[in-house]
Amino acid sequence: MTAGDEARVAPIDTISQQRFDELAGRAQAIQDLVTMPDRRSVDIDFAAEVAGVHRATIYRDLRRVSGAGEVTVRALAQHKRGFPKGRSRLHPRVETIILQRLLHYYLTPAKPSMLDTVGKIAADCEAEGLAPPARAAVIRRLHKLKRAKVEARRYGRKAAEAATPRHGRFLVTEPWAVFEIDHTLADVIIVDSQHRKPIGRAWLTLVFDVATRMIVGYYVSLEPPSLLRAAIAISFAVADKGPWLSARGYGYPWPARGLPRLVHSDRAAEFRADVFVRGLKNQGVETFLRPAGRPHWGGHIERMIGTMMGACRMLPGATHSSPSARGDYDSVGSARLTLAELDDWFAKQILGVYHNTVHSALGKTPLQAWEEATAGKTPRMPDDPEAFRLDMLPSSVRQITRHGIRLFGQDYACEELKLAYAERKGKVEVKFDPRDLSKVWVRLEHGRYVIAPYRFAHEPGRAPTLALYRAMARATRGERGPAQGLLARRAMAEIEAELAASAKTSQRARRMQERLADARKATQPPAETNDSWGGAF
């Protein structure tokens, strides 16, 4: 039986009794012919006469059962008689015209309509004296093309990826085995805390344990994706959440803490940075970057983000997933939440709702899954949590001089740097927090960090940020370069005053001002502690 015949074989239970009896008679008639070494024409005629069919039918039956091993009614059964299913009735040249117009006209980013495409095909056919095809015939040819190819040509790579079937899955069974991390813009417009006017959308970073689906860390701020965001989110994911919960007055349990064995992420610059990779590897944590153009490799975190963004649709100022989904809703005019209120909402959504909702893939809540999976196990914590956090911060290499070190146009000094200069120490690694440039951390011998503040004191609570420094550098850059030292600080103070003056009418100024205030709040250590990290946790 050939491949084409096999595709046309019908199930026996769909054959009528009359048809079955006919096929059975034909099968019996050719039974001896199949194994006959020297078939003659008279043998074929005799079998045709016995079966009551034309001799051509006997020849077709013999071809059909050739290689089948045995003569059966199933082998001879066919679909209903008539024009073979799947064979085109159109002229071959018409088929070519349809395919060309579909590939080079319809399947383009311009997205022409099917009506226009059918019109083009008809015009091409009439120009060559051919009968044009019907619209339904063109649509059938379109549906024969691979769906991913159609989506890629018409809607782009992401649409093609969504249309590609993925039957496998990334199975992780042990807690702390794999943490996934990713950033997204929250689907809600927020307002500034002073004027209560819109300032755009905030960024959300999520870290979660793949095996238990427990969110082990998150970070909400106006800071764009960067090494700082990655460092804060991972450090918070690893840290004990007890002090953080107490400081906020939350009564929710959040037992997630401890170092993972692997951090899984996309190929964003911050996750590829040597500082981030080495900081994790120093604690025995490996990193894995999913291949470019393969978002399904991070399907867990992508679905998690989708869940969080879906919950945002009920918030005032929600942007929804697209303009069509938003409809006539005025996201900007409806915005009411500040950054702090959005952060509080995410905390309660994660700890109160998500962690206590049964997960379809687990059959239990993430909180239950975590508690069961970690029962009797001790999490692996960094030997020095402070050094672990600092290891992943942005860094620069600087030369020690008699004035200390110079970074961002400022001098930083401390007693340890004086001794290092006296001992003829050369270049050192300097860590800095972009939210607070009033101090840096200098790595000396044996991996020990020392804090080096401004050489000349600055106004308390008015620490400049990296974003403010860059704005100053753009504003004051001249023939001799950007302002330095005290002149730079005065320039940054003037820029900050200008932001405050224009905040009522400028969304950009309000966003910058709110970002600056949030950075200072986050890096201001609590009065009762000596938290050199800046109270970020």
Give a written overview of the molecule.
- Helices cover 45% and strands 13% of the residues.
- The chain is of the alpha+beta class and 537 residues long.
- It folds into four domains: 3-76; 92-162, Orthogonal Bundle (Arc Repressor Mutant, subunit A); 179-374, Nucleotidyltransferase, domain 5; 394-522, no CATH class.
- It has a five-stranded mixed β-sheet, with helices on both faces.
- Residues 1-10 and 528-537 have low confidence and may be disordered.
Structural class of the secondary elements?
Answer: alpha+beta
State the end-to-end distance.
72 Å
- Give the mean pLDDT: 84
Strand percent estimate: 5-15%
- As for the CATH topology of the largest domain, it is Nucleotidyltransferase, domain 5
Number of domains: 4
Question: Which strand order do you get reading across the main beta sheet?
Answer: 3-2-1-4-5
The CATH C-level name of the largest domain is: Alpha Beta
Would you kindly provide a brief summary of this structure?
The chain is an alpha+beta fold and 537 residues long. 45% of the residues lie in helices and 13% in strands.
Architecture blueprint of SSEs:
Blueprint: H1 3-7, H2 17-29, H3 31-35, H4 41-51, H5 55-65, H6 73-76, H7 92-106, H8 114-127, H9 135-144, H10 147-155, H11 157-162, E1 179-191, E2 198-209, E3 215-221, H12 227-238, H13 242-248, E4 262-265, H14 269-272, H15 274-281, E5 286-289, H16 299-311, H17 323-326, H18 331-334, H19 339-353, H20 366-374, H21 385-391, E6 395-399, E7 405-407, E8 410-412, H22 415-422, E9 427-433, E10 436-443, E11 449-453, H23 466-476, H24 485-502, H25 507-522
Parallel strand pairs: 1-4, 4-5
Antiparallel strand pairs: 1-2, 2-3, 6-9, 7-8, 9-10, 10-11
Helix pairs in contact: 2-4, 4-5, 7-8, 15-21, 23-24, 24-25
